[in-house]
User: Fold these one by one.
Assistant:
Number 1:
Amino acid sequence: MRSEQSVLLTDLYQLTMLQAYYLQGLNDVAVFEMFVRRLPAARSFLMAAGLEQVLDYLESLRFTSEELQWLRETGRFRPEFVDYLAELRFTGDVAAMREGTVFFADEPLIRVVAPLPEAQLVESRIINLLQFQTMIASKAARCRLAAPSKSLVDFGMRRAHGAEAAMLAARATYLAGFNGTATVLAGMRFGIPIFGTMAHSYVLAHDDEAEAFERFAECNPREVVMLLDTYDVESAAAKVANMAPRLQSRGISIHAVRLDSGDLAQLARRVRRILDERGLTSVRILASGNLDEYGLRDLLASGAPLDGFGVGTRLDVCDDAPYLECAYKLQEYAGAARRKRSEGKANWPGRKQVSRHFSAGIMCRDEITLDSEPCNGEPLLQPVMRHGRRLAPSPSLPEIQQRAIAGLAQLPAELRQLEGAAYEVQVSPAIRKLASQLDRTMP
Amino acid sequence: MRSEQSVLLTDLYQLTMLQAYYLQGLNDVAVFEMFVRRLPAARSFLMAAGLEQVLDYLESLRFTSEELQWLRETGRFRPEFVDYLAELRFTGDVAAMREGTVFFADEPLIRVVAPLPEAQLVESRIINLLQFQTMIASKAARCRLAAPSKSLVDFGMRRAHGAEAAMLAARATYLAGFNGTATVLAGMRFGIPIFGTMAHSYVLAHDDEAEAFERFAECNPREVVMLLDTYDVESAAAKVANMAPRLQSRGISIHAVRLDSGDLAQLARRVRRILDERGLTSVRILASGNLDEYGLRDLLASGAPLDGFGVGTRLDVCDDAPYLECAYKLQEYAGAARRKRSEGKANWPGRKQVSRHFSAGIMCRDEITLDSEPCNGEPLLQPVMRHGRRLAPSPSLPEIQQRAIAGLAQLPAELRQLEGAAYEVQVSPAIRKLASQLDRTMP
């Protein structure tokens, strides 16, 4: 089971179209671009993420002998076409926005330039990879904006949609500014800092809550976090306060306590008081349970003495916008621009670039231009792959995170609020002219 | 990269708790059950799915030497504990609802009985697997109820949340009654029927739409489906009608046309007229684009002459309810029942069973009982694993689908509507009594 790497993780029509391209000899250079048609409600911006996995996929793209055999046996494909697939590699060029870049509707976040069959085949998986991480990074960035100085940890593995979603959600939230994740495998694979506490079942497995806390601290002295809400939060906080000196005398300090249900703001105040009265001012209070960027904002606005948050389900499934209206569209074939005109789904034709303009260090305007036009601002699409190979080693996740945080700081103030605000994205006159020309000449 | 099989696809706290269990010698038998606290808005029922992947996971659970080495290097775990993990296997018993079973809030859909560390460790991945497929199967069942006699195909791979979500969405929609999927790898791995059409890019890569259609039919004569909405739907339909006799004379029949944008009902009527006028009454009309169970219901209620549907994004991400409020909770440890009392998150204690009662072949009432009570109705939790091994080979997906469809036919009429309706689920007096006893005796 290596679904993540299989070329057959694609839509059947890609293969039937490829068979037609092959038989017709349609092998000229195609230009596809992926963009988001419109931002989800309440979003002011999106944050690009997922490019690393796309480049991995393109570099390693090949059909295994088992897959080729299965394709033969379906009876849908001609033998010579399956032989052709056996040799197929991705040999094209890719330009893309760097991960962590803020972007807007209609702006291409990746451009694939390759022989038509190669550029076509990869559509389904490129969308699958870029949509998900971009969606999650964008929501994580909103959480970071809502709680700029707090510890934020991804808790969402269990309700993420499967294994890869859990892994890539950990990655996307971290690159957008989270401190880490609870998902162990994301620590191993991606080097993301991992964090953990205890579960209610741990407390329930003991006859006595205080005993559960003390044993846990002894067994995991490195970072002790006690979960307070299995029975009664305040009495649990008192138990923690009672045992703190005893643990301290054995060299174990209590790092934090966690609240996971109830009125988090009110409980945090009560727990803070109980801890402070016993001199435990350095014990942090963490909260989790049903949180998202709005929950973070409201808790902090209420002045609740909370130091960190586990943000889980709503983030990892992006519950208020669980998909992006994105598309990967043919913009040019054999040197000629192309444009789909379907009702409500038309797109701008040609090979494009996005340039960003700043005023006093703050983003003020983007312009979508043809790639052949001069670019006055900062060009957002950068070449990352040539002839099927990466042009440079990928940046590390901490480097991407730094860039993402710097990018958020360049957002206009109104875009840093959680309510959706508009940003000016101009479409160059040359693109508009090209679109009109195509509308006149195409069937 | 085998995220799907890694034991480290779990939350860090599972491992820190395991270390504590290990050091404390807490190794008695624990009983965990997973249930859904409440149904999402507008849902009248859920459909169990994902058990097959859970059993695969439990049977193959082990830490690899690379994973153990990495755990050692984190500095979080004692060497003797890591040695213990090296030997850890899942040796417990599992009872579960069979896939395709309809169920309701508070009803356990799986019960895990195993030494505490084993039953604890698997929590995160069991939720991750069962939540997703159950959520998708439940929505797919609603689509099936909305369009009982139509062809329904999963089109959602590209916007599913990663690779495993795409694969398991294809599986869950099929077992809930879909005809198949567009995801090729799901055809190879799960034997699910695959379906495909053509994309707009195929038409755009040609200078002439009619030429694109005709070449496609020649290259893929087995199942010809023409996409009509790249430019103008009615003129595309006329082109299809024009070339049909020519193709027919060469032994190629046009199976269907597809609409992917605009007013689908109105366009379908116009296309039907164009095709029928030319005697092409057997050419089916398929629709796709932003569909869900409500879209299907409304299109069919309008009398639109549509024969089949590609249902994609909204289904595969379950956009109106992208997570379930589910929990996997300790119900019993070392022979004693346990109960969490957190605000708003209390659950029923003890080792439970669900019995279903019928009246004239229609479900009329469920009862949640203690497993030790006599069960009068049909018991929904069946033993599926003993000592870490499956008790019987798994049913095939077509068998599960048959059971699922039979189950939908047993739903009361009001539960087969898309608006949420209530169903009677009783909690036995013995469970209520046990809960009260625990509330009096626990801290």
Number 2:
Amino acid sequence: MRQLIQNLEESKIRELANEAMGRSDVLAFWFGESDEVTPEFIRRAAIESLERGETFYTHNLGLLELRHAIAKEMSRRHGPLEIGIERIAVTSGGVNALMIACQALISPGDEVVVLTPLWPNLCAQALIMGAKLTSVPLAPTGGAWELDMESLLGALKPSVRLLILNSPNNPTGWTLTRDEQMKILEHCREMGIWVLADEVYENLYYEKTVNGCAPSFLDISRADDSLIVVHSFSKSFLMTGWRLGWMVAPAKILSSIGKLIEFNTSCASLFTQRAGLVALERAHEVTPRVVSHLKSCRDILCNGLKAIEGVELTTPRGGMYAFFKINGHSNSLTVSKKLVQQVGLGVAPGEAFAKESSEWFRWCFASKEPSRLTLGIHRLQEWLHTQAK
Amino acid sequence: MRQLIQNLEESKIRELANEAMGRSDVLAFWFGESDEVTPEFIRRAAIESLERGETFYTHNLGLLELRHAIAKEMSRRHGPLEIGIERIAVTSGGVNALMIACQALISPGDEVVVLTPLWPNLCAQALIMGAKLTSVPLAPTGGAWELDMESLLGALKPSVRLLILNSPNNPTGWTLTRDEQMKILEHCREMGIWVLADEVYENLYYEKTVNGCAPSFLDISRADDSLIVVHSFSKSFLMTGWRLGWMVAPAKILSSIGKLIEFNTSCASLFTQRAGLVALERAHEVTPRVVSHLKSCRDILCNGLKAIEGVELTTPRGGMYAFFKINGHSNSLTVSKKLVQQVGLGVAPGEAFAKESSEWFRWCFASKEPSRLTLGIHRLQEWLHTQAK
């Protein structure tokens, strides 16, 4: 067993979830997942595929019709330049696309820069492939996390192989501006650095934009830029458990990506891809409703939290998480455990995402019933009240 | 892009399959897949799970009931020692289990020994993780491939980290004997070498044995041996396209395997796992029928091939492939292409598996209709006839 693998941190969120094992009274907001089942018509497409007997291997890069539908959707969101199918690979989930991108790009000892706080999987994947990681921390200014462009560009030296970032960001809600993206892309071009952009939350964006999405590297990049953008069906289509995602990459590396898919999972299940195809074709029946519901969930949660004395947060522009501090309660893992044990409230400790966010908490507001959020807020208040005594 | 990834060979089987693109008259025997749809009751279990709305993330290591069923089945096959669920991880296919095992065990520069000819994915996975590969070739004696124990043990020096082998073997049909397994395991224990055994074909074994399976390392190993055995639902349950497999590993590394699953695919889809559970519970309705059918397919194909002048082969004890030579036609890639183009017969070139098998051909006999095999044999005869003119 590699020492490095043993040393990878066990998820602190899982550690916390274990505290609640066997208890039905816990309101869990710790995972990044809606509690709403995948829409019936999407499930129906997979069921019909199974009934037709589509149980065989399929193309490494994904079903041709699905790749076409993804290319069309990516072009619609990020035109005017067309994004062709020669840049699309279908994967067994967004996380799988990210792992495959790391396998494609990271040789042992390569320098990789990450922007933190960050979903821990992104750091772990690079480490598994033998990367030397440098973390550039975002800085919390008031309740909002901001990028210090100077320290990022300073860290992106010519010796760096790859920059990994996630915007809209899990856990902070921080979202790159167009201006920041242009500076980063320009600099990485000059230095010969690859960019791996996890943009799975791009649809879950609550500001007005032309395409309804958060700013994306695909809006400003050329087809041959050293850029891989990763997407998932999980969040925008309520399809977490399906394990279906995709990447947009330069056409010249697609055949190598196909090889890596062969060596990792061979292909995504065809019946799962049929569900993805219908989800994209009828996206208008799902995503706008999901986003508008999430926006109201966000507002309920953030306004509720802001009304609590001592809670510090900024309403996030994107994603599905409120990220907040509670004055006087700075050990996020200890406090999170107490919240589960004492009032049945499950939030994720900021420690799970970076050292610099160890005093913060992440609360996923993707809740079918917004009343669950209100109840959760009451539990937090109740707990703070007992602490003040 | 890593040079190493670019250098990984594109599948020669895919190269060949591309030759047949758009032709409906080709009899394809090049992929390792039955042409029979997954049994209805297995598909039904996934459909019912989807109807119930089981579309959420599940445990990294797999559904508890499925892990129990796998542990029970592994104990039944490989007792008397019980194999407990603390040694079982469910993965997104056998290939995914193998990749995760490589991530767990191979640090950059580690020496890895492989027995060849071999399914090319096994070498590629080790290379992706930065292994230095040493290949120990099996030797064809007459039509049968045999292990030279002395050269294998000679290659397994204390500096070696890992031995990777696949028995019953794809493509040769070679199968380790109990005696050979004991010698290898004993030696690896002494030298501190891990064994990664791809045993996905263990059920597809045509000799009489107590448990109906090929000899397995699990029959003779201790629970804490440095051994990972990989399995798949693909072959014994006609579930290739589902992407569901498992590994049996020492209990002490299971939590690390769980982390790696999180970073690779997070989990296998729950509805897919429900199908796997029903497949195991009702294995007696599928596997014996599949194996007995494959045995008659094997006999039809091997007897047919043996009757052709100049064809050299031994009937394999296990697996689903006939591996053969044709005197006077030694460039397997060129000949395979001609067979597709000229008589619509699709076999896999031995070149795809190792240098030393470049004069051989692999023919998958997993055919729902045995008449397809007979027709294929006729096409080979027809082609040889035109060549002789």
